[in-house]
Amino acid sequence: MVDNSSDAEAGSTEVGRSRRWRIFRTPARVDVLAIGAYVLLGIFVCANYWVDVNHRVSSHLPTDHSWFEWLFAHGAYSVQHLENPLFSARQNAPDGVNMMANTSLLGVTLPLAPLTWLFGPQVTYALYLGGALAATAATSYWALSRHLVSSRGAAFVGGAFLGFAPGIIHHANGQPNFVSNFLLPLIVVRVFRLAEPGRWLRNGLMLGVLVAYQIFINEEMLLLTALACAVAVPLYVAFRWSLMRHRIWIFLRGLGVGGAVALLLAGYPIWYQFNGPQSYRGLQGGVFHNWGEDLRAFVTYSRDTIAGSPEVEKTIGVTEQNTWLGWPLVGLVVLVAVLLWRTSVAARIAALLGAGFALASLGRQIRYDGRLTEQEGPWHLLPEDLPLIEMMMPTRLSLVTVATVGLLVALAWNDVAKGRPRPAASNGGAPAGGSGNGVAATSGAPHQIASGTPDGSATANGGPAPGSVPLDVAGRVEPARPRLRILAYAAIALALLPLVPRPLPAMHIDPPPRFITSGAWRPYVPAGRTLVPVPIPSNVHGLSTLRWSALTGQAFPIPAGYFIGPDAQGYGVFGAPSRPTSLLIYGTMDRGAAPVVTEENRRQAIEDLRFWRASVVVLGDHPATPALHVLLAGLFGPGQRVDDVWLWDVRPLVG
Q1: Could you give the CA distance from residue 338 to residue 33 in angstroms, rounded to a whole number?
Q2: What pLDDT sits at residue 328?
Q3: pLDDT at 624
Q4: pLDDT for 478
Q5: Where does residue 51 rank: exposed (0-12), middle (13-18), buried (19+ CB within 10 A)?
Q6: What's the angle, vertex CA 283, arms to CA 281 and CA 286, rounded to 5?
């Protein structure tokens, strides 16, 4: 922060100490309060899990929740056994799973391995989910307060929205990778600082490290951030051409360094993702191309907000949606964009960026209120097999729009807090009361991206140094009238309050059988063999049995599972290629009755057991247990009751 009054009188030790106190002490106290509030909100959002953390999962996406618990167990297993974390043989035996080609969250699961060892993946999951929400809000707050707005209140509100936006909370139901956005504000700040004279090498190195680490958290959100920067940076250069034309080469050098560092650190994992074992090329049938953002989702309240209703899940919520802004906030940001268009380059860029990505998020065919219309969307212009694009969900582009809404809200609050600036004189001179470089002389004005030097320095009068790159054109500040200011604050609050999140919905889930948790299975599963849990895990069935692996620290390998892997043609499909025995089990579960078992069924079952390298088949308590028991007895003969499971020792059958 820069305080003009103290800087103008600088020259004595007293004033210098006073200024340092204001710079380091007061903001630090406010910052701690802001971060503390975010942490409390993160705990509140996860409250339903903490009621019984070991026996609760997301009721919205229970399978995804169990998958991420398995991922935390994978990180702990990889560290404990010093195994390659880019691959796992503990699921989909014997082929395994390419973890880089899936949502592996390695940048989180590996560092948190000690926590998983001590408390289990259920506790780690709940702790991390709330922590990731709070951390994203905190880094957003830092980026806003240090680089875009001078009001800590504006930064707090903007950070809270960016960390806990309805679309983000919607993903928090079982998908913590999409709430793990705490590095993205730092990446964006570093991109805009690449043009700092004399610091391109340092900034490039820091950008490369951040990008490389984000690759191990969520590549898709990194891609969205890169696309947003690819639009925002040229817009900034166009709006500030006279200042930026001499710095383009500096920017490109810094960008080159960042790219080289990221490639050096993450090049092999990326190669492994596309060329390693169990890698794949694209998703079969372009499954995600029709997942566009529903037009009604932009103006509807999410189920997980205090103004939302579960009814929306029956229509537009059945597919993935990411905005959920509500009419008041949509109207507010449009008004803010219009009012700040002339005076704030940041608002101008945010408005164009948000509108462009909102349009792009509509997908190949426009969807309204849960139904596809006859109107084609922008994605119909793109080939379905275009690299990278072929695996993107159009609806997720709207997350960039959500981020721009947070920026506009912060800019609006800041404008109200500091008074509305009068545009600079047309002849380029400084208006009365303004600083000579065209930047408002407001107390506490940020001094990097928003209105000062890109390197964070300031002149003696509190304004930016020569050569600064301001995002806001400002003139003389006119304090807003008290009543207008109250009305403006009220308008922002009324638009945001309906979006306050509720605790995430959770459901009870039974623990694994004692036979599994006690280790009684160990005599039946020698090294190199697998335990076949029934139901066999998949992206549709076997939620409970996938957790058998997760909650035992992946002590035994299992066949099939919940992941994306290659089919016979090398295209990505959900789960393992179906085998006859798996289909028999799933069909029995769906019908609630076992079919008549034939000799061909028995022959195929033995063949499948040999492929899986099975040593034992285990059936625990399940709603379909009676029917499944009949099926398995028909395939493998009478089972034996061991502790609380039915067990078939199939080693004599498979050899």
Answers
A1: 33
A2: 97
A3: 92
A4: 54
A5: exposed
A6: 130
Query: Rg for the chain (alpha carbons), in Å?
Result: 28
Distance between CA atoms of 298 and 405, rounded to whole angstroms? 12
Q: Which two tokens stand for residue 482?
A: 């008290």
**Terminus-to-terminus CA distance in the chain, angstroms?**
73
| Average pLDDT value for the chain | 87
- DSSP-based three-state secondary structure for 198: coil
Peptide bond just before 535 cis, omega within 30 deg: yes
Cα 166 to Cα 7, 172, 263, 405, 497: the distances in Å are 42, 10, 34, 12, 12
Lowest pLDDT segment from 21-30, 78-87, 349-358: 21-30
- Residue the block writes with tokens 């210098």: 16
Q: Which of the four pLDDT bands, split at 50, 70 and 90, describes residue 15?
A: very low
Type of residue found at 205: L
Q: Which residue has 């449009």 as its token pair? A: 334
Question: Angle at which helices 184-192 and 200-215 pack, to 10 degrees?
Answer: 160
Lookup result for tokens 């990326």: 270
CA distance 26 to 305: 33
Per cent of the chain over pLDDT 90 is 73
Burial (0-12, 13-18, 19+ Cβ within 10 Å), 407: buried
**Is the model's pTM score more than 0.85?**
yes
